[in-house]
Amino acid sequence: MYLSFVHCNIGGGVKPGTIVIKKYGNRRLYDTAASRYVNLDDIAALVREGKTVQVVDAKTGQDLTRVTLTQVIMEDAKDKPTGLPLELLRQLVIASDEVRQEFIMWYLKSAFDAYQKVQDAVHSRLGEVQSAILSPMDMMKKLLGESPPPPPQAPTEPELEGLRKRVAELEARLEKPARPKRSRRKR
Fold this sequence. Notes:
The protein is α+β, with helices and mostly antiparallel strands. The chain has helices at 40-48, 65-79, 86-94, 98-144, 157-175; strands at residues 19-23, 29-31, 36-38, 53-57.
Protein backbone atom coordinates (compact mmCIF):
# COMPACT_ATOMS: atom_id res chain seq x y z
CA MET A 1 0.00 0.00 0.00
CA TYR A 2 1.36 3.37 -0.96
CA LEU A 3 0.35 6.46 0.95
CA SER A 4 0.90 9.63 -1.01
CA PHE A 5 0.63 12.99 0.64
CA VAL A 6 0.34 15.75 -1.92
CA HIS A 7 0.92 19.24 -0.59
CA CYS A 8 -1.36 21.87 -1.98
CA ASN A 9 -1.66 25.52 -1.30
CA ILE A 10 -4.79 27.55 -1.83
CA GLY A 11 -3.68 28.46 -5.35
CA GLY A 12 -3.73 24.81 -6.47
CA GLY A 13 -0.71 22.88 -7.69
CA VAL A 14 -2.05 19.33 -7.78
CA LYS A 15 0.22 16.66 -9.25
CA PRO A 16 -1.08 14.89 -12.36
CA GLY A 17 -3.03 11.71 -11.63
CA THR A 18 -4.07 12.93 -8.19
CA ILE A 19 -7.68 12.34 -7.22
CA VAL A 20 -8.96 15.47 -5.55
CA ILE A 21 -11.61 15.01 -2.89
CA LYS A 22 -13.39 18.13 -1.69
CA LYS A 23 -14.61 18.20 1.89
CA TYR A 24 -17.61 20.40 2.53
CA GLY A 25 -18.75 22.02 5.77
CA ASN A 26 -21.40 19.35 6.24
CA ARG A 27 -18.57 16.73 6.32
CA ARG A 28 -19.53 15.36 2.92
CA LEU A 29 -16.68 14.26 0.67
CA TYR A 30 -16.92 14.76 -3.09
CA ASP A 31 -14.66 12.94 -5.57
CA THR A 32 -14.06 15.47 -8.34
CA ALA A 33 -12.60 12.84 -10.70
CA ALA A 34 -15.62 10.52 -10.51
CA SER A 35 -18.18 13.30 -9.90
CA ARG A 36 -19.75 11.55 -6.94
CA TYR A 37 -19.95 11.69 -3.17
CA VAL A 38 -17.69 9.23 -1.35
CA ASN A 39 -17.12 8.05 2.20
CA LEU A 40 -14.01 7.10 4.17
CA ASP A 41 -14.21 3.49 2.95
CA ASP A 42 -14.13 4.68 -0.65
CA ILE A 43 -11.06 6.80 0.08
CA ALA A 44 -9.38 3.82 1.79
CA ALA A 45 -10.09 1.69 -1.29
CA LEU A 46 -8.53 4.30 -3.58
CA VAL A 47 -5.39 4.48 -1.44
CA ARG A 48 -5.15 0.67 -1.30
CA GLU A 49 -5.35 0.60 -5.10
CA GLY A 50 -2.23 2.77 -5.14
CA LYS A 51 -3.97 5.94 -6.25
CA THR A 52 -2.80 9.33 -5.02
CA VAL A 53 -5.59 11.05 -3.11
CA GLN A 54 -5.70 14.64 -1.91
CA VAL A 55 -8.47 15.91 0.34
CA VAL A 56 -9.00 19.67 0.37
CA ASP A 57 -11.43 21.96 2.15
CA ALA A 58 -14.01 23.04 -0.44
CA LYS A 59 -14.01 26.68 0.74
CA THR A 60 -10.41 27.41 1.68
CA GLY A 61 -8.48 24.81 -0.36
CA GLN A 62 -6.60 23.79 2.80
CA ASP A 63 -5.02 20.34 2.52
CA LEU A 64 -6.93 17.90 4.78
CA THR A 65 -5.30 14.72 3.45
CA ARG A 66 -3.44 13.83 6.65
CA VAL A 67 -6.48 14.38 8.83
CA THR A 68 -8.70 12.34 6.50
CA LEU A 69 -6.26 9.43 6.22
CA THR A 70 -5.95 9.45 10.01
CA GLN A 71 -9.74 9.20 10.17
CA VAL A 72 -9.59 6.24 7.77
CA ILE A 73 -7.09 4.50 10.06
CA MET A 74 -9.21 5.25 13.13
CA GLU A 75 -12.39 3.93 11.48
CA ASP A 76 -10.53 0.77 10.48
CA ALA A 77 -9.26 0.35 14.06
CA LYS A 78 -12.83 0.48 15.41
CA ASP A 79 -13.78 -2.71 13.60
CA LYS A 80 -10.72 -4.68 14.64
CA PRO A 81 -9.33 -5.12 18.13
CA THR A 82 -5.83 -5.04 16.68
CA GLY A 83 -4.26 -1.79 15.65
CA LEU A 84 -1.60 0.45 17.01
CA PRO A 85 -0.42 -0.59 20.47
CA LEU A 86 -2.00 1.37 23.31
CA GLU A 87 1.37 2.58 24.62
CA LEU A 88 2.30 3.96 21.20
CA LEU A 89 -1.03 5.80 21.02
CA ARG A 90 -0.35 7.30 24.45
CA GLN A 91 3.08 8.44 23.28
CA LEU A 92 1.53 10.05 20.20
CA VAL A 93 -0.84 12.03 22.41
CA ILE A 94 2.02 13.07 24.69
CA ALA A 95 4.22 14.07 21.73
CA SER A 96 2.78 17.53 21.37
CA ASP A 97 5.90 19.37 20.37
CA GLU A 98 7.14 19.24 16.80
CA VAL A 99 10.48 17.51 17.49
CA ARG A 100 8.86 14.56 19.24
CA GLN A 101 6.20 14.29 16.54
CA GLU A 102 8.85 14.26 13.83
CA PHE A 103 10.77 11.56 15.70
CA ILE A 104 7.66 9.40 16.08
CA MET A 105 6.74 9.88 12.42
CA TRP A 106 10.30 8.97 11.39
CA TYR A 107 10.13 5.91 13.63
CA LEU A 108 6.78 4.79 12.20
CA LYS A 109 8.02 5.29 8.64
CA SER A 110 11.20 3.34 9.40
CA ALA A 111 9.18 0.51 10.95
CA PHE A 112 6.86 0.40 7.94
CA ASP A 113 9.79 0.42 5.50
CA ALA A 114 11.43 -2.43 7.43
CA TYR A 115 8.16 -4.36 7.31
CA GLN A 116 7.95 -3.83 3.53
CA LYS A 117 11.54 -5.07 3.09
CA VAL A 118 10.78 -8.20 5.11
CA GLN A 119 7.62 -8.83 3.05
CA ASP A 120 9.56 -8.39 -0.21
CA ALA A 121 12.32 -10.70 1.03
CA VAL A 122 9.79 -13.37 2.02
CA HIS A 123 8.13 -13.23 -1.39
CA SER A 124 11.53 -13.35 -3.10
CA ARG A 125 12.63 -16.34 -1.01
CA LEU A 126 9.38 -18.18 -1.69
CA GLY A 127 10.00 -17.74 -5.40
CA GLU A 128 13.55 -19.07 -5.00
CA VAL A 129 12.35 -22.06 -2.95
CA GLN A 130 9.70 -22.88 -5.52
CA SER A 131 12.22 -22.77 -8.37
CA ALA A 132 14.69 -24.82 -6.31
CA ILE A 133 12.04 -27.48 -5.74
CA LEU A 134 11.05 -27.63 -9.39
CA SER A 135 14.60 -27.47 -10.72
CA PRO A 136 15.78 -30.91 -9.43
CA MET A 137 12.63 -32.51 -10.86
CA ASP A 138 13.38 -31.03 -14.27
CA MET A 139 16.99 -32.22 -14.06
CA MET A 140 15.89 -35.77 -13.18
CA LYS A 141 13.51 -35.84 -16.14
CA LYS A 142 16.30 -34.76 -18.46
CA LEU A 143 18.75 -37.29 -17.02
CA LEU A 144 16.31 -40.16 -17.29
CA GLY A 145 15.41 -39.12 -20.79
CA GLU A 146 11.77 -39.11 -19.91
CA SER A 147 9.77 -38.55 -23.03
CA PRO A 148 6.08 -37.96 -23.39
CA PRO A 149 3.96 -41.11 -23.37
CA PRO A 150 3.56 -42.63 -26.83
CA PRO A 151 0.25 -41.95 -28.55
CA PRO A 152 -2.27 -44.77 -28.40
CA GLN A 153 -1.67 -47.22 -31.22
CA ALA A 154 -4.31 -48.21 -33.67
CA PRO A 155 -5.12 -51.91 -33.73
CA THR A 156 -2.99 -53.91 -36.16
CA GLU A 157 -4.43 -55.53 -39.30
CA PRO A 158 -4.90 -59.03 -37.80
CA GLU A 159 -6.63 -57.55 -34.76
CA LEU A 160 -8.95 -55.53 -36.97
CA GLU A 161 -9.82 -58.61 -39.01
CA GLY A 162 -10.62 -60.57 -35.83
CA LEU A 163 -12.84 -57.78 -34.55
CA ARG A 164 -14.68 -57.57 -37.87
CA LYS A 165 -15.38 -61.33 -37.79
CA ARG A 166 -16.70 -61.13 -34.26
CA VAL A 167 -19.02 -58.20 -35.13
CA ALA A 168 -20.28 -60.14 -38.16
CA GLU A 169 -21.03 -63.19 -35.99
CA LEU A 170 -22.96 -61.08 -33.50
CA GLU A 171 -24.95 -59.42 -36.27
CA ALA A 172 -25.80 -62.81 -37.76
CA ARG A 173 -27.10 -64.04 -34.41
CA LEU A 174 -29.35 -61.02 -34.12
CA GLU A 175 -30.76 -61.55 -37.61
CA LYS A 176 -31.72 -65.22 -37.05
CA PRO A 177 -35.20 -65.50 -35.66
CA ALA A 178 -35.28 -67.15 -32.33
CA ARG A 179 -36.92 -70.59 -32.40
CA PRO A 180 -40.03 -70.73 -30.34
CA LYS A 181 -39.66 -73.15 -27.51
CA ARG A 182 -41.94 -76.10 -27.62
CA SER A 183 -43.98 -76.50 -24.59
CA ARG A 184 -44.23 -80.01 -23.32
CA ARG A 185 -47.64 -81.25 -22.72
CA LYS A 186 -48.35 -83.54 -19.93
CA ARG A 187 -49.81 -86.84 -20.96
